[in-house]
Amino acid sequence: MHAKKAAVLLAALAAAGVLAACGSSDSETGPISGQSEPIPGKAAPKATITVENGEPVGGIQELEYAAGDQIAFRVESDVADEIHVHGYDLMKDVAAGGSAEFSFPAEIEGIFEVELEGRKQQIAEIRVNP
Length: 130
Ligand SMILES: [Cu+2]
Hints:
Layout: H1 2-21, E1 47-52, E2 55-56, E3 61-66, E4 70-77, E5 81-85, E6 90-94, E7 98-105, E8 110-116, E9 121-129
Parallel strand pairs: 1-4, 3-9
Antiparallel strand pairs: 1-2, 4-7, 5-6, 5-8, 8-9
């Protein structure tokens, strides 16, 4: 009787643990993918998104990659804001008249917004094809 009750309790705890772990640590995230150097010849040319008066010059920039590519772009902005890459959930501050650079592997497929978070202004769209 007691043993069975304990087993049920353990199962419940295990289930709760799985739920609690959701979102915090992703087991799919590779071990040392942090500062991966762009591979010469493989890396796409680095795009530059210029922001003037808080808006992307030439409209929302479309950046297209294949899964596994290195996504690399630079934002030059005349306004201070925080740049948010959706999907990959990367954030970087940019100062007025400053720039911010992003470089990360295209490991999530789909279409993702890049946004000036404070202004809720989309500046680019990243498309990662399978
Ligand atoms: Cu955002």
